[in-house]
């Protein structure tokens, strides 16, 4: 399937109505159209496309049934549900000026239609107009950012779920002079959650072998964010890592990612977040970074500052993410762990109290799920190539390689 340029297609070329109002004046999407779009999304979700091409194809199909003028898609770390990047389409393309404020509201407030809240209550899709019974000013996000900055009157949100994990979420928008998203449309978006999740997970996996490893700057980055949400102090490592993130690996500027962590850290300080927030993000050069945010308290009891640290992910950080992406069982995860330790089939059988035949069955299943043909390919994929040269070096007391 040939790649499609990023962004939404020209409505005249695609046959999509030029506005949501025109579409609704004609009729609500028919059952036949909805089923056809659902089938299209399912097909592209399993077509082996990378993330950008999958999203372009999926949004093109979805727009036929649920018209919108702008869309923002966010990828999240499935282990923490924190933002790792955004991709924007339609008249939102290239509009990053409010990402910082958005991140603070998304993770610093407890609005019912935040992605994390929806995931907590099992709500796969939601419309702001519907959830507020038409009182959209009750949504701080819509009232303070979406309407004044972009002229949108309603937002529909849909989660992307796969194997019990949240992999991303889509936000679709209509302008103030268009009809709000209807219950039937939100229900239709909810029906796509598992297909979209499979497509996002598959898209991330398809990108692993396509990106080349790069040089890794050494040392953690540290930055201080003050009570006014401004970065007031950074060390040289933070400057280097922020530059790495700004190269485009996350699909957006690092501002939204940092502000999301800061917002969640403030909620943690208030007791509204279960643990200090952290996120794992893959850069344009193929490295995985781990970001942590922790609220600071002054000696005099004053609060408000947040420290954010950025460092290269170590194998213990990366492996759980890859295991989640491959969809391995607990036993298969154990086998992968032993493969990374260099054990052969017989040694793995003795360690796990399994026959060699059973270990080979697990290996076959792992290779199929990871789309590799050998243990060497699996190791390269788990460590994303740049870790392989370090496997023969010593390991220090921190658990990380010494060279």
UniProtKB/TrEMBL annotation:
<feature type="domain" description="HTH luxR-type">
    <location>
        <begin position="321"/>
        <end position="387"/>
    </location>
</feature>
<keyword id="KW-0804">Transcription</keyword>
<dbReference type="GO" id="GO:0006355">
    <property type="term" value="P:regulation of DNA-templated transcription"/>
</dbReference>
<protein>
    <submittedName>
        <fullName>DNA-binding transcriptional regulator, CsgD family</fullName>
    </submittedName>
</protein>
<feature type="region of interest" description="Disordered">
    <location>
        <begin position="1"/>
        <end position="30"/>
    </location>
</feature>
<feature type="compositionally biased region" description="Polar residues">
    <location>
        <begin position="15"/>
        <end position="28"/>
    </location>
</feature>
<dbReference type="InterPro" id="IPR016032">
    <property type="entry name" value="Sig_transdc_resp-reg_C-effctor"/>
</dbReference>
<dbReference type="Pfam" id="PF00196">
    <property type="entry name" value="GerE"/>
</dbReference>
<dbReference type="InterPro" id="IPR000792">
    <property type="entry name" value="Tscrpt_reg_LuxR_C"/>
</dbReference>
<keyword id="KW-0805">Transcription regulation</keyword>
<keyword id="KW-0238">DNA-binding</keyword>
<dbReference type="GO" id="GO:0003677">
    <property type="term" value="F:DNA binding"/>
</dbReference>
<dbReference type="InterPro" id="IPR036388">
    <property type="entry name" value="WH-like_DNA-bd_sf"/>
</dbReference>
